Amino acid sequence: MVAVTGVTKAGKESRHSLSNTGPRRFLGVECDFSICARDGKTETPLAPLIRTLANQGITVADMCASILMHLAHLGPLTCATYSGGKSYHGSFFVEGETEDKIMRFFRYAVSLGADPLTWTKSQFVRMPDGMRDNGNRQTVYFYSPGLLKSPRE
Asked: What is the pTM of this model?
């Protein structure tokens, strides 16, 4: 963010607008798998897989972590944060990379099940070690500050 607020496309002042974002430094990749959709009733396409893996002792958290670790072989994962609910957010350092390269990486992440909404630069993602409204901590499970270097350095 380059300012506290910006102006939305509708002309309203907001903390959540594209006009107050600067160049992308990090790319947030959210992994969030569940048996039921947000309505709590409709099953997601991944429901059978989640059940099969659960019977083998593999949790949704394991699924999320494995995707983030796989992606870490392709781009610098600097932080992995648990949402305090059910999702995991990976922060990938992308400063200095071309938008095309970042987009290809992100499309691949989405093909593995990552949430496509985090492509939008003004999309909120979890704050490492932050606190949710319900009091749950957004725990950091992985942090690698040594990766915070521009790829052109």
From this structure: 0.84
